[in-house]
Amino acid sequence: MARTTDATPGEQLLAQLIERFPFTAALVANTEGRYVAANRAASELTGYGQQELLSLSVWDLTPPAGERDVDILWRAFLQQREQSGVYTLVTRDGRTVEAPYAARAHVLPGLHLSLLKRSSE
C-alpha cells in the first residue's frame, strides 16, 4: 500500500483499508487533487507504480482534452460530496481507459476517496 510518510493515524487507517479492495482501484486525493494513497489495484489499472501515483494528481490521469471538464467535475464533487459515473483516464503507457467509479468527498477532513472498477480483461 502506498501512502505519504507523514500520514496521520486516520490517514494510515484509510490507506490500510483501501488495500483490502483487491479488485477495486482505490485512490485517495487531497483537496488540491493530489493523490496521497493508492492501492495495488489502482497501480494495475493506471500502469503507474503505487509510489509514482503519489506524485500525480487527478489532472495527470486525465486526457488533455478533458482537463477543463475535470476542473468543473472536481469542484462539483467537493461541493456535492458524492459523485459517480464513468471516468476516462490515461494510463502510464498513454492508453485511455474508461472505468466506472464512485467517489466520496471528505471521508476524512480534506481527503477524498475514489473507487474505480477495473475491467475484467
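Next protein, fold it too.
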Amino acid sequence: MRIIGDSVRLLYMELLGQKIEFPDDYYQGEYIREIAKRLFDEFGDTLQNESPEGLFKHRAETENFDDIKKTCARLGIHFDVFYNENTLYETGNVSEVIEELRDRGFAYDGDGAVWFRASAFGGEKDKVIVKSTGEPTYRLPDIAYHREKFKRGFELIVDIFGADHLASYPDVLAGLKALGYDTDRIKVLIHQFVTLLQDGVVVKMSTRRATFVTLDDLIDEVGPDAVRFFFLMRSIGSHLNFDLSLAKKQSEENPVYYLQYAHARIASILRFAGEAAREFGYDLGDLTELRLTSDTLAPLREQEEFALIKLLLEFPEVVESCALSFEPHLLSDYLNDVATAFHKFYHMHRVVTQDEKLTLARLTLCLATRTVLANGFRILGISAPERM
C-alpha cells in the first residue's frame, strides 16, 4: 500500500509539470493515473508536500476497494463484513500476539528479528514473524486475524488461498496452536492459478506494469454467467485455463451455453406442448399442475427415460456432497450429465405424441429436468434462460 500510495503521488507530481523518476516496481496502470488526475482536479497543487501514506494512499485504497466491491456485485457476490488488515495494528492485536507467543515460549529474538518457534509444531525450521527492519511477515497479521475470528465465535473458518500460500499457511495454523486454539475448526482450501487464453495463446499479465485483463473486462467480454461457471467448473486443485474464445461461443462447445440451452429447450417444449397436443385431439390443461407420481410416470419405458430419471434422483446427494467437500465443480459436472442425458432423450423420443398419457409422462419428466437444472443454476449463481 505504501508503494501504491507513492505511485499515485509521483503521477500527481507529474501532472504538476515535475519530471519524475518512476521506479520499475511501482504501479503504472491507467487506473493509478486516473486517481492522480482526480486528486489534481480536486486539490490543484496543494498536495505537493503530502505524504505518500496520507491522502494518496487513502484515496488509492478507497477507490480501488470500491471498484472491487462493484465488480463482485456484477457476479452476484456480496460480503457481509470486510476486515481491514490495518485494523489489527491500530487495535494492538498484532503486538498482543507477539507478547502472548513470547509468554508461552514460542517467540524469541534473533539476528535483530522476532522468530516464531514453528519447529515446536512440526515445522522444519523456525520462521521470522517480524523482520529486522521492524516490518511483520505475512504470517504474523494472518495469525492475529484468525485469532480475532476465533474470538468472534465462529465454529467453522474456511480459508481460501492461492497456491502461492501453500508454504505459509501451515505456519499460521501452528501459530494458532501455539496460542491454544483448535485448528481443526479451520478448513483450508488452496486454489491453483488461472491462466487466460486468447485464441489458444496465453495472455501475459503484470499488475504493476498494468498489462492485465481485469475481471470487469472479462465480464464485459463473455458475461457474468460464463465467468462464474468457468471458475466453478474445475476442481480447486486443478489449474484453470480460462479460454476466452470458448467462453464467447454460442454453441454446445461452450459448457455453460450447453447447460443453459437444455433449460431453454425444455421451456420451449412446454410453451408449445399444449398447441401441439390439440393437433392430436386432446387438451393437456395447465402444465404447471403436473405432478411427479407413479401413475403419471407409468407410461415411461425407454432406456433414455430411465437414465434421465436416475440422474435426477441424484441431485440432493450431489448438492450435499458439494457442501461437505467444498467442491462446487461436482455440481457443474452433474448438471452437464443431466443436460447430456436430456438431449439424448429428446433426440431419440418425441415428447408430444398421439398418446395422451405418454405425452403427460414425458412432459412431467421435462418439468422435473427443468427444475433440477434451474435449482442447480441458482446454486452456482448463473441464470436459467427461457429462450436462447
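About the second fold: Residues 255-279 form the longest helix (25 residues).
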